[in-house]
Amino acid sequence: MTDPTIPKSNPSSVAIPSFKTRDSSTSDFWTERFEHSFTPWDKGGVPLALQNYILRTAPVVTLIPGCGVGYEAAYLASAGWDVTAIDFSEAAVRAAQMALGSWGARVKQADFFTFVPDHPLGLIYERAFLCALPPALRPNVVQRWAALLPAGATLAGFFFFGDSPKGPPFGIDRALLERLLHPYFELIEDQAVMDSIPAFADKERWQVWHRRR
């Protein structure tokens, strides 16, 4: 399997530009950052927990919301998965399409809250999407996950815990996350993450949730 990853420089060495937009629920917020090449959340590759999950899981139709540069989309596609990655920032989509070459066709500009997949989903992959949005939107995100995933489908990815009110990233209390998810999902896997970027170190977990029947 090809690992389409692109090394990144150390985010701590990058100067922070002056930004006009502070509301991460708007596409302008993310467009500004991508246009300034300021993406300190970008790991520059595919996390180990996802690689391990793909190795032991049969391919299903997959959606990646808020995909950024989209390394995971290319990785899943190279492993034979039917994957679509979306981002509502045009600049993010352009960056992904340029970085991923032929795999860039998997990345589309769309709003997660209105996006309708062409085929029923088997998996939504969560990677710094929930924590990127203001906390007030968390119930909306969870309800949209539940609406998009049929019974027996999977929500899998990385969840950022902790108290960080000045995000993004916005950490979430674990008990709160479980209260939001439990009406729709059952937790079946929960592991420590060993290759986090510094901002997420010791604060994120790899989790797999199944949509309740």
From TrEMBL:
InterPro entries: SAM-dependent_MTases_sf, TPMT. Keywords: Methyltransferase, Phosphoprotein, S-adenosyl-L-methionine, Transferase. One of its GO terms (biological process) is methylation. Pfam families: TPMT (PF05724). Coiled coil: none annotated. One of its GO terms (molecular function) is S-adenosylmethionine-dependent methyltransferase activity. This is SAM-dependent methyltransferase. It comes from Glaciimonas immobilis.
